[in-house]
Amino acid sequence: MPNDLMTQTVEGDRIAYRHIQGDIPLDLADGTFISITRNPALRIYALGFQPAKSIPEIPRWFLHKYAGEPKVVLDPFAGSGTTIIEALQQNCPAYWLDYHPLSRLICRVKTTEISPEEVLEAASKTIGNAAGRDNAPTTVNFSNKDFWFQKPVQEGLELLKHYILKASPRNQPLLWLAFASTVRKTSNMNDGMLLAARRPHIEKIPERSREDVLEYFKFYVNKAIEAAVEWYPFLQKSRGEAKELPLGDAKSLDGLFRCDAIATSPPYINAIDYVWASKFELHWLGLVKNDAERLELYSREIGTERIPRKECKELGKTGHSYLDSLIEDIYTGRKYKASRGQNELRARVVYKYFTDMRNHFISSWAHLRSGGYYCFSIGDASRICGVEIPVASLLAEIACELGFREKERFHILLKNRRLNIPRNVDWARTIKHDTTIVLEKPDES
Ligand SMILES: C[S@@+](CC[C@H](N)C(=O)[O-])C[C@H]1O[C@@H](n2cnc3c(N)ncnc32)[C@H](O)[C@@H]1O
């Protein structure tokens, strides 16, 4: 056996992995399983909360192999901007969008150069003013706020917010990003917790003061500035430019733009609720006005579980016979009967997810030039009510029904992914691999 091959048993299957150190080789054989030891990365990638961040090695591999300078790249599910950062380093102009306002903030911070000295000055003024004021306003309200935020923390956050709003609009995005990290850190969530769910295992958080909040804010401003200062030379050198598309939904990409390549990682199914995971940031940053607006935002998420009960009663048909049989298995509870209404709901979530992704592929086709490529990475499979859904393969089949052609795929063994929450049940399972698939829009000329 070559010395870069190792075998491992994953859920009863013995799989041979090619071990990769650093970048993914361009000559990977189709269907290879790999495990990666990553080289240290620029700090800019880590900046900003995104529970399902991609590793930059995937868009880097794709852009090197299929895009090349000066191809125009699109990421319709930009998240924390991993693809954009790669595209800019490879001198590719990049269009991007994400329906989530926190993701948009993160991407804007990463693609807009500001003066570190000016931001530091603005931050110190904000902190000074907040420290010097006694009475804090109450402007933020959302469900369970008092459970998750101690009173002095609420006051500290309100004061920071009040003074960030007074800073120059040029400096505000980075301050808001540092504020978002402060909100998460000073909440009563335990470190590493993704969702604000009141569960018995939550450990008690030490008492916190207003000063603690200001200290954390200072810490996160410095951290963001360090990452930005390291990144700016690359941003300045790039012959590409990042452009935010004024679109709020990847299901229908309107507008007159063309791209040569799409590189993205769509939302996972049945894995992460981005809106719930970022509930605190959404409210504290004023990105949603109230609980109702947050839930409305969640309805637009691809993979949403917020579906009216009446709609769930209906057994959806996608027209893909194998997928439809899986949806029916979930609906009828053939493998696992969940509590009341859950089978119907889960079946509808799966139906809606694939229908939304189909619409997304149709929409992407219209903007991608003939001969261009669409590369996506996603968890290989999800088990829902005991039914195994081969998500990555089904997405590729749906895209191919629309006219795309599959070029190649590989699978990465997931290690230490926060998304990969162990579930001690046999009707759901953890995602073991990320599958990357490259599709081609055939050139008909
Ligand atoms: C897997 S994450 C992308 C992570 C990204 N590659 C990164 O490294 O940070 C999927 C993204 O899809 C976004 N998303 C979900 N539904 C969407 C929709 N309908 N339109 C656009 N973006 C959506 C989520 O907000 C999330 O940021």
Q: How do the helices and strands line up, and which of them pair or pack?
A:
Blueprint: E1 5-10, E2 13-21, E3 33-37, H1 57-67, E4 73-75, H2 82-89, E5 94-96, H3 101-111, H4 116-131, H5 145-148, H6 151-164, H7 172-186, H8 210-237, E6 242-244, E7 259-264, H9 274-277, H10 279-284, H11 291-299, H12 309-313, H13 321-332, H14 342-367, E8 368-379, E9 382-384, E10 387-389, H15 391-401, E11 405-413, E12 433-440
Parallel strand pairs: 2-3, 3-11, 4-5, 4-7, 5-6, 7-8
Antiparallel strand pairs: 1-2, 8-12, 9-10, 11-12
The tally of beta strands, per DSSP, is 12
SSE order, one letter for each helix or strand: EEEHEHEHHHHHHEEHHHHHHEEEHEE
Weakly predicted, low-confidence segments: 417-427
In order across it, which strands form the biggest sheet? 1-2-3-11-12-8-7-4-5-6
C-alpha Rg (nearest Å): 23 Å
Bound molecules: S-adenosylmethionine
Secondary-structure-based class equals alpha/beta
For the sheet with most strands, the description reads:
10 strands, mixed
User: Mean pLDDT, as a whole number?
Assistant: 92
Gross morphology is globular
Strand content: 15-25%
- Number of DSSP helical runs: 15
> What distance lies between the first and last C-alpha atoms, to the nearest angstrom?
45 Å
**Residues in helices, as a percent range:** 40-55%
